[in-house]
Design brief:
It contains 12 helices and no strands. With about 240 residues, it is mostly helical. The chain has a single domain (about 20-239), classed as Serine Threonine Protein Phosphatase 5, Tetratricopeptide repeat, CATH 1.25.40. Helix 8 runs parallel beside helix 11. It is globular, with a radius of gyration of 17 Å.
Length: about 240
Amino acid sequence: MVGTVSPPAAVPAPGTELTSADLLQWCRRVQLVTSRNRHHLDAINVIFDADLDTGTNLSELYSSMVDATHEVIHRAAPPGRERPFVSPATLFEIWGEDDDFNVVGRSTRIVRRLFRAIAGAVDDRPTLNPAALADALAAGASIPDWDVFLPEAANQPRGPQPGTILDVVTAAADAADRTRRARLGAQLQAIAAAAEKATNATPSHHSVLRRTGVVDAGALGLCIALQELPAALGAAAEH
């Protein structure tokens, strides 16, 4: 899985395309910001099954993603040897693997399924330009098997529900498509803004959110992750 794709012959200027280094930086940033917000995300996990664990599950997921990525890279490159090039598709494949992560929860399952869809869409591209990122997020927004992947459980209805994390996926994909010909930085800002708007709209779908004055926990969990994309762009080149 690792090292099957050659790095680009001409490396794009920093900040013009998402590189694997950018994505790794994003993953680390998301781990930190999710961990900092874990208790809040747990506390607002109040719709359907109010088990107060969304923040804990997402925090564990991103920590596992970081650990799994490092393990794969280090296993492929013994000490003293140059680390192999890892494509964006390989990263998303690693992050979407169910068996590697000892975490549960509907939101984490959705995020992992989203990564698998993105991995298939980016194919063997060594970097992601705005059009490629738009196509990747469109693949995530058009996953066909949610009814099977999200079965009915306890108070949780089967399949995708309005006013949840999947609203953020759709909003992010729409924003990416609208800006597929823009500069990457502008596209990432648009994705972050659309994610925030969709998250803030989740109470309109659920009376319990309106009563308690909070947004959907899963939606907010993905929103704060997508808001780290602009900061991660090109950040690896600065270190």
